[in-house]
Amino acid sequence: MDFINRPRYIPMNRRRRIYEGKAKILYEGPEPGTLIQHFKDDATAFNAKKHEIIDGKGVLNNRISEYIFTHLNNMGIPTHFIRRLNMREQLIREVEIIPLEVVVRNVAAGSIATRLGIEEGTQLPRSIIEFYFKSDELGDPMVSEEHITAFGWAAPQEIDDIMALAIRVNDFLAGLFLGVGIRLVDFKMECGRMWEGDMMRIVVADEISPDSCRLWDIATGDRLDKDRFRKDMGGLVESYTEVARRLGILNESEQSRGTGPTLVK
């Protein structure tokens, strides 16, 4: 499809805004069935009770998510991602978002450590998949497969498809980050229904970045993710920049100061 390779770029102030979330804005895309996903510099935690603007964060998340989604596409794992448009924006396929956050846990951290009294950093017996209902008003409560099917958020076959995708994404991410000295503790994934005529398939949507992953340096245990913001540790952009450098997205000599990092073309 020609529009995938040569989308017609429309200035932001002339676009129709479809949706604005805590970290991203979705605009009408250049062709039917497409959207433009714009990454903001907003950092939020605890359902936006904590909120700051952190210069350069959106640029880094855009590039890291682009890197990951490109690899997922190349592996045959279906996603909504088409291509990056510029430093802050991606061209994506329009999907019907399933109102669930899918969390895959490899190591005890965050809420599971608190809920079950497990020491943070404990390797779990196996990867655990949890579902949370997407609702800021309710605090994104944890739900079971029974809740999901009873309330019609997803059908049993869709849940199976989501879990299969989550396992494949987890295997890829764990290996990817292990290769650059980073431990994948857990990550959040969202999925959507993509329609192609009468055919529907479940695809990976939203983003995968240090905003949605817990990433610990294997050698030092340093946090390289949004926990630095949640826990007032500071150095968020520096940590995201380090992740990008290790993945080969940034040159080793480049600095991320002022208006944000300089990225490899």
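^ that was protein a. below is b, sequence first then the tokens
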Amino acid sequence: MKILVTGVRQKNAPIEIREQFALSADELDKAIQHLQGMPAIQECAILTTCNRTEIYTVVDETNQGIDSIKRFFREFKGVDFDLHRLAVFTLLHEDAILHLFRVASGLDSLILGEGQILGQVKDMYARLKKQNLVRTLPSGNGSGKSVVLDRLFKAAITTGKRVRSETGIASRDVSVSRSAYELARRLEPDFANRRITLLGGGKMATILMSALKQDLSAAQQSNITIVNRSEDRLMVLCDKYGFQGQGWEGLDTVIERSDVLFVATGAPHVVLTPHHFSKEGQKLILDISVPRNVAPEVGDLPGIQLYNTDSLDGESQLPQEYQDEVLCHAKEILEEEYAQFYGWYVSLPAVPTITELRSKVESIRRAQLASYGTLSKSDSRVLDEMSRGLVNKILHEPTVRLRTSGRTAEEIASKAEVLGHLFNLDEPCSS
């Protein structure tokens, strides 16, 4: 079994490419089911955010697994993977594990320490559990609950929590939304007194609303308008933040009188085109959606300043000396959590042998107890507890040694094969 991650992220791919690979929330369930049926893929999960679309898989064979992912993007998104090979990244085994740990910790984000990504990793894990699309492996105690991606995501979430709590990286409010907000304030000197419109009502939009609510006075907040397609959601947001609300049918009027627009609708396509800006005027537009919700041509119109997520690099970054300190501490945490996960991961080839060994010894124990004939309940209980404890003590050390007997899965598999031969595990025990 091999762990593989492949996809696109902001570090390697501009938004023009990322939006071709992006998967909406409505597409995710079908996408995972589609992937699950691909050759060589045993387990799969998809992490999709405004900055990345990454597919995590456990595969039988690496090249066949990569071919299956290429085929998935071609069939499901109509994207030719090979045409974007300079923008696509693929990481294997140790690198794939550490990458997910870095992602969950906010260390691979556009903005160091970005906290929203940990919640997105948790959402990915919850979706995986809900769909039950992970392959179950037999475990040493027969519980059948050891799963590669399940264990990997748990370890990644633990790592992310530790990095955020132990390094101080979570002490600052950093996110894509917050960075867009700070960029707007920097670009627009009189930002607080401008007429501001927010398109959208999801997580990214509500982060912006919270920032505006916190920083602007009541009089300044009277210039803020929320636009949303859902009337119910619009009412909830207006009640919570105290801003004006406008249904989608009044979008053109709101845009005409706006000075600053934040666009984060979550729609998988363009919603604002040049015809929405037919009347000239100075406008600052920050489109933080992927795929983009504002047509790029809008940025060519007179008086329009258009920015997207690729414009946020460098916003809200920590001072360099503090970044170095945080990264040094975070590296230690990643190494600790990686060692724990990898020790479990490489021991997986030993699990079937350990299960078979325990099963065979248990059969021998039960047969031996049965050979004593009829016993009193008291004697039967004493013998059962004694023999069970004896078996556990005898098997404990060889079980632990086998799990930790090599640095690679191949070494442990080889020793498991020897143990299976010594105990003749292919043959049932004789009564």
